[in-house]
Amino acid sequence: MSQLYNLPPELLSRIVSYTATPPPPDPKRRHPDRYAGQHVPDGSTYAGLSYSNIALATSPAPDVASLRSLRLVSKTFEQLKLIFTTQCGSESMDNPGPEDIDFRVIVLSTFYAGLADAEKLFHLSIKSLQNITPKALMGKESTAEEIAFMNNFEVVMRRITQLGLCITVEDWDAAPENTLRQPEVHDFFGSELQEYWLGPVAAQLEYLRIYGNEEAYWGFYPAGNLPHFPALRTLILGDYSFTSEKQVQWILSHADTLEELILDDAMIGVAVSIAETYVDIPSRTIVYEKDHSSEPPGYQPKWRGRTLKSQVWKDPTRWHNLFSRFAEGLPKLRHFTINHSHWDSKAYEHADALCSAVRIERYGAFSEGVWDDFASYDAEDPDWTDWREDGNEIIKFQVEKPGCDEEDWQALNEFLAELKRRR
């Protein structure tokens, strides 16, 4: 614990942020608009749920004393947010940033220790949680401090009915294709997220908000394996990539309870070109396998090799197809939003107030670790092209920009009109 108190104040000032009372709801929120500026007639503000945003106590910022005494004052807390910096790195990095893995583990351990007596706490949000689960939470604890961390984590999470996680990953600027190839990314989204963070609280969660970040579209690569939530009323997915029927069915499996669905910066993968890992083309999913060379065993894409020809497919699914299916398959749904937030506008915090829009970024194509949408292509050449060397051949893989703006727009209007009738 003494290590934490010796950290620079400028780092500690961003560790914990809380407020006793949430801000009043904005009566003007949730008025969907089209990308071109045309409004969707969504009617009055949806007020079917009582979930509130959390304000950040930025003045004065929490300091060492407030962190040390968190346990003394946490009994009054109902909602709490923990914020890390978005920059992170693995243990092997020369410069993992101001908040390395050891720092983050100490902060998480101290944070949960401070909340052990917060019996009123029901809403917990962690922003920029690194995609590496502390070993203590994976049952690998060996010291008294690690055992206490695990126990405090379990005590706190048993109280939570509303959970938000914004996941940050190590960013490879020089080689963006390597960002999603990191083993830790697949371990976390494909296995650890479900087993250690969501699975233990799945039965009680009513509100779930999960974001990747701008470098990590999750869902396809890495796979986003999530449990079923039998009490879920609100689901918010950020930076999520749809490629398979399995993902749609998972959302529809919450038909008995789901009242609110928000998709922020979600895209449909209209085409995939991938050579180095195995894919199941009929189901449009990556083939994964347990990696027993690590402890605990990892969860990794099955390696195929660099010399084989690419596996490619084009997906005919479009958003107007999904809007219709959500309308029919989610009978209790009362509110839906789809849009593409910009990261400089604090997308994770503002998801509850997001307006619907038909944006060009709603479709994308994937090639060996990199998602690319159609926003950067001009009207004269709107298609996406991938040139790939397959053995001795140079193959051109071209994908036409989906030409269904009006169909998507009309289907969204009809979907929102149906939800308005249900209120």
TrEMBL record:
Stretches for region Disordered: 17-38
Top-level taxon of origin: Eukaryota
Protein name: Uncharacterized protein
The species this protein was found in: Aureobasidium melanogenum (Aureobasidium pullulans var. melanogenum)
